[in-house]
Design a protein that fits this description.
Blueprint lengths: L28 E3 L3 E14 L11 E15 L3 E14 L11 E12 L7 E13 L17 E13 L4 E14 L11 E15 L2 E14 L10 E14 L4 E14 L4 E17 L2 E13 L6 E16 L4 E16 L7 E15 L4 E14 L7 E13 L1
Antiparallel strand pairs: 1-2, 2-3, 2-19, 3-4, 4-5, 5-6, 6-7, 7-8, 8-9, 9-10, 10-11, 11-12, 12-13, 13-14, 14-15, 15-16, 16-17, 17-18, 18-19
Length: 405
């Protein structure tokens, strides 16, 4: 039985979106026997009730053009997947000084290599790379529920190397780098980005096809931007040790549960936070047309809103997808709850908690092999325990047309 650990990079790097995938897959065109390319362009109109994600509740209608490209190359023992996109947004109102910045773009690459077939000993390697520039008014689209109201750039690279040692014993090592940068040029209150290096290892023993015992450890090293020069250190680091289990409850239900302890030292060693952390995931293929995903995780990191602060995040998400009308209509729904606890090293009176609840739903209907109409809705409620700290509601409704070759 193949280990599930190949998909994990440690609790700090767990993705929080449990959105079940749409089940339609456009055909694209093939070059030779191994390369498939899928170009597309979509056009959409969006109503946004609160473009700035704040108490001002500035509404607008947004027109979007989004060309992109997906590709995959599959060999006998390795594969390469990639995507790239550009999105231009035309707003009915001017929401910031530089309207030429109303765009998003990004790309992803995934490389996989495997020397063994299922149930055999061997090596596996997965490398993931991505870059994204996100317009400040589109931060509601972030899958983890976070929102900061700034243009941002994000780069991420992760790798997992796994060895199946015996029929029951397997081990893996992982490493990653993440860079986050905010554009504060149009605001007097800065948001603090950071870079992060991670490394870890995991060992597992598959007692049976249905039960895999896991032990994992990871280390995270952060360097935070400190644009105001407060004289407070910008280095933070965390160590996590988890134990748990995973594998398959049935042929259609896979799961993974890890829990343990994290020690996080922040603000250049000014203070330390400790606490229990966890990483939970599950997937249920209910039937040929049903797919359900659930995720939960907690972790520590430097705060992006405040200097000299540690932020503990607990996140839970649930997503479901259903294919209807012989695969022509696809429906998705997901909900994400995110709790942030912010602790200051310099001024405990400024500590605060933040709860963010996000609902998303979508419908895709394929008119033919080349045209798909879609609609989606998003609702977010941000609630703080201190009056005026990031309290707002926001919802979006979009309709559009996607053309795919």
């Amino acid at each position: 039985m193949r280990s599930l650990c190949i998909s994990a990079i440690g609790a700090v790097a767990v993705a929080f979106s449990a959105s079940a995938e749409m089940m339609d897959r456009p055909g694209g065109f093939r070059i030779g026997q191994r390369l498939t390319i899928r170009p597309y362009v979509s056009f959409s109109a969006t109503y946004d009730s609160n473009v700035g994600s704040n108490s001002a509740e500035d509404e607008d209608v947004i027109w979007t053009v989004n060309p992109g490209l997906n590709f995959e190359y599959r060999a006998d023992r390795w594969y390469l997947l990639g995507s790239g996109y550009y999105s231009f947004n035309a707003y009915s109102k001017d929401h910031k000084s530089n309207t030429s910045d109303y765009h998003n773009y990004g790309q992803t690459l995934t490389f996989g290599w495997d020397t063994s077939s299922k149930e055999e000993r061997g090596w596996s390697l997965i490398l993931n790379e991505s870059f994204r520039l996100l317009n400040e008014t589109d931060d509601i689209t972030l899958s983890d529920g976070s929102t900061y109201g700034r243009d941002s750039q994000q780069f991420n690279f992760t790798g997992v190397l796994e060895r199946r040692i015996t029929e029951h014993l397997h081990a893996s090592v992982n490493a990653g780098y993440y860079w986050l940068d905010y554009d504060n040029s149009n605001s007097s209150a800065p948001i603090y980005g950071w870079s992060r290096w991670t490394g870890g290892a995991e060992i597992g023993y598959a007692a049976s096809k249905w039960f895999d015992i896991l032990l994992a450890a990871s280390y995270q090293d952060y360097s935070q931007d400190n644009t105001r020069g407060y004289g407070i250190g910008n280095e933070s680091n965390g160590t996590t040790l988890h134990i748990g289990f995973g594998s398959y409850a049935t042929e259609r239900i896979s799961y993974r549960l890890l829990a343990g302890w994290t020690r996080f030292e922040y603000a250049g060693g000014a203070d330390t936070s400790n606490g229990m952390t966890y990483s939970i995931s599950g997937k249920w293929q209910i039937g040929e047309t049903w797919n359900l995903v659930a995720l939960a995780a907690s972790y520590y990191q430097p705060s992006e809103r405040e200097y000299a602060t540690v932020q503990r995040t607990d996140a839970l998400s649930f997503g479901v997808a259903k294919s209807l009308i012989r695969g022509k209509l696809n429906a998705t729904f997901d909900v994400c709850y995110r709790h942030e606890s912010n602790t200051y090293s310099e001024d405990p009176d400024r500590d605060y908690d933040l709860d963010i609840l996000t609902f998303r739903g979508g419908l895709n209907y394929s008119l033919n092999n080349y045209m798909t109409i879609f609609t989606r809705g998003e609702y977010r409620d941000s609630m703080s325990d201190k009056s005026g700290y990031y309290d707002y509601e926001r919802f979006r409704v979009s309709v559009g047309l996607r053309l795919t070759y």
